[in-house]
C-alpha cells in the first residue's frame, strides 16, 4: 500500500487529500460538511476523490466535532464528583468577564455544561503537599455515583479532587468503585488528562472531556466502521490541537486534544514549509467557511501554548497559539443600527451562503466575492457546483446596499473592508503586541478564502510577501500528512530555580518520560525510535504568564536561566533580576513520520491569461478588467501584474493593482508589491 489520505472537516466543506508516496502526486477534492452526520461528509469527500481505500496505508483526520459539541450543547449528560465542600468549583470558575464584554453590563455567561444537581462531593482529602488529610470514603463515592446515575440520569462523570495532581490514588480508587457499580458509565479522571496545579482549570478540562467523550467515541467508531466497510485496513490517526497525531483508540480516551485539530494541520504544514522554503518567520492565514485562524511561525517552529479556551471554559491542553475570529466565507454581513458588521454568525454548510441556492437568505462574505467578480459562478469547485449569482446580488442590494444608500458593488466591497479591519486586529495581537514586526514575515494564505483576502492584508500591514501553496483550500489536510505521532505529559513542580534540587527533579522527568514512551509504544512507534523532548515551564517570580524552555538530558540551572532570559527578551524586550519559578516540567514524546516532498514544476515563458473578467479592484476601488489565469497552466518563473485572478477551482487568489505574482519552482504563488518583484 502506498496511498496516504488526509481529511479535514471544516464548517462548510470537508477537504480530502490523497498522496501517492511512490510518485509524490497529490490529488484533492471537497464535499459539503454534513453537521447532522459528520462521518457521512467524510465518506462523501473520499468518494469524490475516488480513492481505493484498500490501497490506503494511512488515514489521518482533523475534526472540530468536540468543539462543535460544546458550542452547540450536544455533549453527554455529565456529572462531577469532587471533594466534599468543593462541588461548586466548576460553576463559580474565575468570575472573569471576557475582554470584548468588559463594559457590557448585560453580559451573562453561557449556560454551564453541568447543572448543580449533577455535582456531588465525597469524603476524602489531600493537602497541598499530596499528604492524606482524610481517607477516601468508599461508601461516600458509591452514594454520590448512585445519586448521579440512578436519580439524575448522568451517563458520563468527571472525577477531579483537590491536589490529586500530586497523588492520583484517590481518583483512581473512586473510579474503580464507580466502574464496579456502573460499568457502562463513562469516566474521566483529571490525573489521566493533566497532572498540573490550578483546580478550576483542571476541573474544567476534565468536565469538557467527559462532556464530549460519548459523542466522540460514537463518531470515531462510526467512521472506522464506514472506512472498514470500504476496504480500509491501514493506520487510522487523528490530529492533535498542539500538532502531531494520535491513534483513534487514544483519541477516544482524550477527545479534548482534538478540539482544534483542524487548524493544527495547517500550522504543522506551515512549519514544515517554512523550513523547506527557507522562511524563518511566517504568519499562517487560514480562512475557512466559519472562522479565520492566524498563528506565528518563529525560526521554523509554531508558537505553542498550554491552555486553550472553549467559550469561557479553560482547557489545559497543548495547543498552538492561534488567534481565531468568527470571520470566514460563510460569515453573515448584517446591519447593527446602521453600521455594517461581518460575523461572528455564519451560514455554515446548511443552508450556506445565498449563492449556494440551498435556502440561505442572509448575505455572506462568499456572496460578496461573487458580486465583486472574484468567483466565477460557473466554475466554482471546478465546475461541480454552480452558484446563484443573481440571488447573491439581490440579497446584498435589499439587505445592505439600499439601507446604506450604496451601490451593490460598494456594499459588497464594504463587507471585505470590515472583514479586513477585523483581520488586521487579529494579526496585530500575535505580532505587534508580542514584539514582532509583521513586515519581516511571509504571509502563508490558505483555506478556501485565505487567498481572497491575503494580498489586501499584506498591503494594509506592509507585509512584503504572500505565499499561496498548491490547493490552498486543502492545505490543512496536506499539513496533516506531515504530522508526527505525538503525546504530551506534565508534572507540577512549583519551586524557584535557585531553591530547586535538580537532582531530585530528574526522577520526575524519568517517570514522565516513561509515560511518553509507553504511549508511543501503544501507538505503534517501535522501541528506541521515539524522540523525547524535555521542557521547563518558567516565569519570573511574581509574574502570571510563563514561557517554555527546552532543557537537555543534563539539568543546568545557569543554562536554564540564560535560555529563559534570552527568550523573555526576544518576546517582551526586557529581562528581570527576579528569581525564576519552575511551574511544570513537560515531556513530549514524538514518533517521526516521513514528510511529503515538495514537487517541482517545469519552467515556462510568459504566462497567458485564459480570459478577462470585470471585477472590483481594491487598488483603485473601481470595477476594472482582471486577467484570469488557470493555476494548472502556470509554470515556474511566470510573473504577471495585478489586477489578476488565479483560479484553481477550489479557491481563487485575488491580486489587486500595485501587486505582482511570481511562480516559484514548486508552483507556489509569491504575491509582492510590483516594485519589489520587478
Automatic annotation (TrEMBL):
Domain Hydantoinase A/oxoprolinase span(s) in chain numbering: 202-487
Highest taxon above the source species: Bacteria
Domain Acetophenone carboxylase-like C-terminal positions: 504-671
InterPro entries in the cross-refs: ACX-like_C, Hydant_A_N, Hydantoinase_A, Oxoprolinase-like
Residue ranges of every copy of the Hydantoinase/oxoprolinase N-terminal domain listed in the record: 4-180
Family matches, as PANTHER family: 5-OXOPROLINASE RELATED, HYPOTHETICAL 5-OXOPROLINASE (EUROFUNG)-RELATED
Protein name in the entry: Hydantoinase/oxoprolinase family protein
Organism encoding this protein: Paractinoplanes bogorensis
Amino acid at each position: 500500500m502506498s496511498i496516504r489520505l488526509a481529511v479535514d472537516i471544516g464548517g462548510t466543506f470537508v477537504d480530502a487529500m490523497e498522496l501517492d508516496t511512490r510518485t509524490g502526486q497529490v490529488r484533492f477534492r471537497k464535499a459539503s460538511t454534513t453537521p447532522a452526520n459528520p462521518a457521512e461528509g467524510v465518506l462523501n469527500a473520499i468518494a469524490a476523490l475516488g480513492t481505493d481505500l484498500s490501497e490506503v496505508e494511512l488515514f489521518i483526520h482533523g475534526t472540530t466535532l468536540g468543539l462543535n459539541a460544546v458550542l452547540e450543547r450536544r455533549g453527554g449528560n455529565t456529572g462531577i464528583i469532587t471533594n466534599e465542600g468543593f462541588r461548586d468549583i466548576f460553576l463559580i470558575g474565575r468570575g472573569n468577564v471576557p475582554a470584548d464584554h468588559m463594559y457590557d453590563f448585560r453580559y451573562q455567561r453561557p449556560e454551564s455544561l453541568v447543572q448543580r444537581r449533577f455535582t456531588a462531593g465525597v469524603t476524602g482529602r489531600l493537602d497541598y503537599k499530596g499528604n492524606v488529610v482524610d481517607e477516601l470514603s468508599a461508601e461516600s463515592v458509591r452514594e454520590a455515583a448512585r445519586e448521579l446515575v440512578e436519580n439524575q440520569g448522568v451517563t458520563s462523570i468527571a472525577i477531579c479532587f483537590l491536589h490529586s495532581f500530586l497523588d492520583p490514588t484517590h481518583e483512581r480508587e473512586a473510579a474503580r468503585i464507580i466502574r464496579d457499580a456502573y460499568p457502562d458509565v463513562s469516566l474521566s479522571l483529571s490525573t489521566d488528562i493533566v497532572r498540573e496545579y490550578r483546580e478550576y482549570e483542571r476541573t474544567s478540562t476534565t468536565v469538557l472531556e467527559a462532556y464530549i467523550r460519548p459523542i466522540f467515541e460514537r463518531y470515531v467508531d462510526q467512521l472506522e466502521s464506514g472506512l472498514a466497510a470500504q476496504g480500509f485496513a491501514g493506520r487510522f490517526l487523528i490530529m492533535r490541537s498542539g500538532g502531531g497525531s494520535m491513534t483513534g483508540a487514544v483519541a477516544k480516551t482524550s477527545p479534548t486534544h482534538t478540539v482544534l485539530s483542524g487548524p493544527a494541520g495547517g500550522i504543522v504544514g506551515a512549519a514544515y514549509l517554512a523550513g523547506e522554503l527557507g522562511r524563518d518567520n511566517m504568519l499562517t492565514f487560514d480562512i475557512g467557511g466559519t472562522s479565520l485562524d492566524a498563528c506565528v511561525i518563529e525560526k521554523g517552529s509554531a508558537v505553542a501554548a498550554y491552555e486553550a479556551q472553549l467559550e469561557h471554559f479553560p482547557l489545559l491542553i497543548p495547543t498552538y497559539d492561534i488567534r481565531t475570529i468568527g470571520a470566514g466565507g460563510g460569515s453573515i454581513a448584517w446591519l447593527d443600527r446602521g453600521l455594517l458588521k461581518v460575523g461572528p454568525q455564519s451560514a455554515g454548510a446548511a443552508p450556506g451562503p445565498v449563492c449556494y441556492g440551498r435556502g440561505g437568505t442572509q448575505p455572506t462574505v462568499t456572496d460578496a466575492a461573487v458580486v465583486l467578480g472574484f468567483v466565477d459562478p460557473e466554475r466554482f469547485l471546478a465546475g461541480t457546483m454552480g452558484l446563484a449569482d443573481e440571488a447573491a446580488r439581490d440579497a446584498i442590494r435589499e439587505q445592505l446596499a439600499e439601507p446604506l444608500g450604496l451601490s451593490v458593488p460598494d456594499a459588497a466591497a464594504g463587507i471585505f473592508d470590515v472583514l479586513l479591519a477585523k483581520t488586521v486586529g487579529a494579526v496585530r495581537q500575535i505580532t505587534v503586541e508580542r514584539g514582532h514586526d509583521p513586515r519581516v514575515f511571509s504571509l502563508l494564505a490558505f483555506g478556501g478564502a485565505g487567498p481572497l483576502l491575503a494580498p489586501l492584508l499584506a498591503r494594509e500591514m506592509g507585509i512584503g510577501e504572500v505565499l499561496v501553496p498548491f490547493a490552498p483550500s486543502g492545505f490543512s489536510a496536506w499539513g496533516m500528512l506531515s504530522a508526527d505521532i505525538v503525546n504530551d505529559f506534565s508534572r507540577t513542580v512549583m519551586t524557584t530555580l535557585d531553591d530547586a534540587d535538580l537532582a531530585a527533579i530528574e526522577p520526575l522527568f524519568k517517570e514522565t518520560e516513561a509515560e511518553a514512551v509507553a504511549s508511543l509504544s501503544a501507538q505503534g512507534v517501535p522501541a528506541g525510535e521515539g524522540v523525547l523532548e524535555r521542557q521547563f515551564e518558567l516565569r519570573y517570580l511574581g509574574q502570571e504568564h510563563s514561557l517554555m524552555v527546552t532543557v537537555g538530558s543534563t539539568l543546568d540551572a545557569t543554562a536554564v536561566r540564560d535560555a529563559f532570559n534570552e527568550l523573555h527578551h526576544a518576546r517582551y524586550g526586557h529581562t528581570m533580576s527576579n528569581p525564576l519559578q519552575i511551574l511544570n516540567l513537560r515531556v513530549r514524546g514524538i514518533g517521526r513520520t516521513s514528510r511529503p516532498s515538495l514537487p517541482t514544476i517545469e519552467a515556462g515563458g510568459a504566462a497567458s491569461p485564459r480570459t478577462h473578467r470585470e471585477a472590483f479592484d481594491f487598488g483603485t476601488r473601481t470595477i476594472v478588467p482582471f486577467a484570469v489565469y488557470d493555476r494548472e497552466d502556470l509554470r515556474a518563473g511566470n510573473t504577471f501584474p495585478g489586477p489578476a485572478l488565479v483560479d484553481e477551482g477550489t479557491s481563487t487568489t485575488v491580486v489587486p493593482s500595485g501587486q505582482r505574482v511570481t511562480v516559484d519552482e514548486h508552483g507556489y504563488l509569491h504575491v509582492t508589491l510590483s516594485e519589489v518583484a520587478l
